[in-house]
């Protein structure tokens, strides 16, 4: 990876990501397999810095681990509760999921070991775990600052039986580590041991991951439903022979958020309703914020819905995924307050301080407390260079800032190797960055699989009726792009927004909550079809559409209509900007007199009194605005077929379009160019 990675503004997100294995599950499974009696074949193992630290440590302790066959597969020959090597120095980097459980396991068995990590690990507390282990009879001493690594482990080891109290308000890993170690204690075959929580517990779902995995490896942990866990006498780790590591639910949050911000749908595979990871709850939080979310047993999918709501969100159960929410707060309709994140202070960095500093660079107003952060979104994101603070989740979560319309540079992007070395490659596979086009930044469709017929033209040229009839004839989806601009116009009218306020109009465009059912349109729970057809809304739509910011905000929404079996899209820039790769582009036109006459007849049928002279002036003014605006001016694409419909009936124009499509399809089947 380069020292810095520049992300161009992202216009759309769509696709599927197969998640890498969960770091939390991988390191637990590697350790439990090493402690078990028998040989275990692990699949889906994460290949990243933290997990390789565990592999290296277990090998140093004399455990046999053989990679393959196939990526993510390891065969572990268990040591039946006692490592062959009883004297070793372990260097574990910044891998908390390796330092904490290995400290407990080695201390409970006893030996001559030292455990150390990088400078940041020496700042991450471990005192609560050490106190609990000492209470169980283990021998440990600090080699540096009291309460922090490095540590020396000596003999004798721990003793089973009775009750051991432990704090879990700093890190749930302390509770998990102690539980994993207890079957190794002297007397564990004769006496049961109960672990009692002293105080609150952060990240409780991670303890549930631990107890579920222990059960898979033969050790049942009885939980009273509150603050006590009991391991019965005689519990021993036994290999399940095979164990599959599920995908990383924390990593899923970045892609699901991308789907919600960039139109979607974006699907992640490897986690779903059957997941043991607490961070799958992020999907429910995302849905509560306004996204459209669906879930299967081993997949989750997110698409754009309503603009994010903001407000107070309790993140006690999803501390890692909460970092993603801190960045999506930049796009919310109201300030967002994340609570229950005190554990951020003792992670790879002080994440509360780090997140606050980087959000401020993007223009947000941020305040913090001991276990909370509040983000007030800016009117528009500022270009920024994001420092990642040697924290993989800083790099991954702040990649989402590229949806804000400004360039974002990520310093030290290689820090993602801690848990997800291929993150930026996967992120690029489902996002489409804007590229410069005359007057507007646009993006090519990332899928490009479904055929598109793009129909453009000036007001009253008949393009809406023609596009609908062609879509019906072919069984294609239909996009009335003008309806999106009219929805923004309706919001401007109802909320008294100045039509010159581009930034506020763009925010309305980005947060549209609309549902299209055939030719009917619902917004905010009401049918607005007739409202959108009013002359007031049409006139306002022409005024809001001139803003570059509004057009950019609607690009992803328009492109999301491109779905199999095909799409007929009509508007002012379908062939030039929104779908520049459309297989068939048409530009419908007619004399201004003919167009005014058509509009006159439509309005008279609706009982609206209007004069032909007024309509002529109105259409000429719209033509002028549309053709002279800076952002995507009305013009026929260079490869468009121009149809003058002045003297043609609706049915005749529809037949001509269908004939052109059929000719293009035959040419494509024959391997010939579609144009011409």
Structure description:
The protein is of the alpha/beta class and 676 residues long. It has three domains: 204 residues, Alpha-beta prism (UDP-n-acetylglucosamine1-carboxyvinyl-transferase, Chain); 222 residues, Enolpyruvate transferase domain (UDP-n-acetylglucosamine1-carboxyvinyl-transferase, Chain, Alpha-beta prism), CATH 3.65.10; 219 residues, 3-Layer(aba) Sandwich (Rossmann fold), CATH 3.40.50.300. Strand 4 and strand 5 form a beta hairpin. Helix 1 packs parallel to helix 6, helix 3 runs parallel beside helix 5 and helix 4 runs parallel beside helix 5. The longest helix is centred in the C-terminal third of the chain and has 20 residues. It is elongated.
Brief rundown of the structure:
It contains 22 helices and 34 strands. The chain is of the alpha/beta class and 676 residues long.
Q: Name the CATH class of the largest domain.
A: Alpha Beta
Rg, Å, rounded: 30 Å
CATH topology of the largest domain: UDP-n-acetylglucosamine1-carboxyvinyl-transferase, Chain
Q: Low-confidence parts, pLDDT < 50 over ≥5 residues?
A: 434-448, 670-676
Count of individual domains: 3
* CATH level-4 homologous superfamily of the largest domain: Enolpyruvate transferase domain
- Strand sequence of the main sheet, in spatial order? 16-17-15-2-24
Total strands: the figure is 34
CATH architecture level-2 label of the largest domain: Alpha-beta prism
The helix tally amounts to 22
- Average per-residue pLDDT, rounded, comes to 88
Shape: elongated
Distance between the termini: 45 Å
Structural class computed from helices and strand pairing: alpha/beta
Major β-sheet profile = 5 strands, mixed
What share of residues is helical? 25-40%
């Amino acid at each position: 990876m380069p020292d810095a990675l520049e992300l161009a503004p992202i216009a759309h997100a769509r696709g599927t990501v197969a998640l890498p294995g969960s770091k939390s599950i991988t390191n637990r499974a590697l350790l439990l397999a090493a402690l078990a009696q028998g040989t275990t074949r692990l699949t889906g193992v994460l290949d990243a810095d933290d997990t390789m630290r565990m592999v290296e440590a277990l090998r140093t302790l004399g455990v046999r681990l053989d990679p393959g066959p196939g990526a993510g597969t390891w065969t572990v020959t268990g040591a039946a509760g006692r490592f062959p090597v009883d004297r070793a120095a372990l260097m574990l980097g910044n891998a908390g999921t390796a330092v904490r459980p290995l400290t407990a396991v080695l201390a409970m068995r006893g030996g001559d070991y030292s455990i150390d990590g990088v400078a940041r690990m020496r700042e991450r507390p471990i005192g609560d775990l050490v106190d609990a282990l000492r209470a169980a009879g283990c021998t440990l001493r600090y080699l540096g600052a009291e309460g922090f690594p490095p540590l020396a482990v000596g003999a004798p080891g721990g003793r089973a039986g009775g009750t051991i109290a432990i704090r879990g308000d700093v890190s749930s890993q302390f509770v998990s580590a102690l539980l994993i170690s207890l079957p190794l204690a002297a007397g564990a075959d004769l006496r049961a041991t109960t672990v009692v929580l002293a105080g609150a517990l952060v990240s409780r779902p991670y303890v549930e991951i631990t107890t579920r995995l222990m059960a898979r490896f033969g050790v049942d942990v009885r939980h009273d439903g509150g603050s006590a866990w009991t391991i019965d006498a005689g519990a021993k780790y036994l290999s399940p022979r095979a164990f599959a590591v599920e995908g990383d639910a924390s990593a899923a949050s970045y892609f699901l958020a991308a789907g919600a911000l960039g139109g979607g749908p974006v699907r992640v595979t490897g986690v779903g309703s059957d997941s043991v990871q607490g961070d799958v709850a992020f999907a429910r939080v995302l849905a509560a914020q306004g996204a459209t979310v669906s879930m299967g047993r081993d997949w989750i999918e997110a698409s754009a819905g309503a603009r994010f709501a903001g407000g107070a969100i309790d993140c006690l159960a999803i501390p890692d995924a909460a970092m993603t929410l801190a960045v999506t707060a930049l796009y919310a309709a109201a300030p967002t307050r994340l609570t229950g994140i005190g554990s951020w202070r003792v992670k790879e960095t002080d994440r509360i301080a780090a997140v606050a500093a980087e959000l401020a660079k993007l223009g947000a107003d941020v305040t913090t407390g001991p276990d909370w952060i509040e983000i007030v979104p800016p009117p528009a994101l500022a270009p920024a260079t994001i420092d990642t603070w040697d924290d993989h989740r800083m790099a991954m979560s702040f990649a989402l800032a590229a949806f804000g319309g400004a360039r974002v540079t990520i310093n030290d992007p290689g820090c993602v190797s801690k848990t997800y070395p291929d993150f930026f490659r996967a992120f690029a596979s489902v996002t489409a960055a804007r590229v410069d086009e005359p007057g507007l930044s646009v993006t090519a469709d990332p899928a490009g699989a479904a055929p598109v017929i793009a129909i453009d033209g000036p007001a009253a040229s008949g393009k809406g009726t023609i596009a609908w009839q062609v879509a019906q004839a072919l069984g294609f989806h239909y996009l009335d792009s003008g309806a999106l601009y009219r929805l923004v116009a309706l919001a401007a009218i109802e909320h008294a927004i100045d039509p010159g306020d581009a930034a506020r109009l763009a925010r309305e465009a980005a947060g549209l909550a609309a549902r299209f059912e055939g030719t009917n349109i619902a917004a905010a729970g009401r049918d607005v079809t007739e409202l959108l057809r009013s002359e007031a809304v049409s006139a306002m739509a022409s005024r809001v559409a001139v803003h570059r910011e509004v057009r950019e905000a609607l690009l992803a929404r328009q492109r999301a209509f491109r779905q199999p079996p095909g799409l007929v899209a009509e508007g002012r820039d379908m062939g030039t900007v929104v779908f520049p790769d459309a297989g068939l582009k048409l530009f419908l036109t007619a004399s201004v007199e003919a167009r005014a006459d058509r509009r006159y007849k439509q309005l008279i049928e609706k009982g609206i009194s209007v004069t032909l002279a007024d309509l002529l002036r109105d259409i000429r003014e719209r033509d002028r605005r549309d053709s002279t605006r800076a952002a995507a001016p009305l013009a026929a694409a260079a490869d468009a077929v121009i149809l003058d419909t002045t003297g043609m009936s609706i049915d005749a124009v529809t037949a001509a379009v269908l004939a052109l499509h059929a000719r293009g399809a035959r040419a494509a089947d024959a391997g010939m160019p579609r144009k011409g």
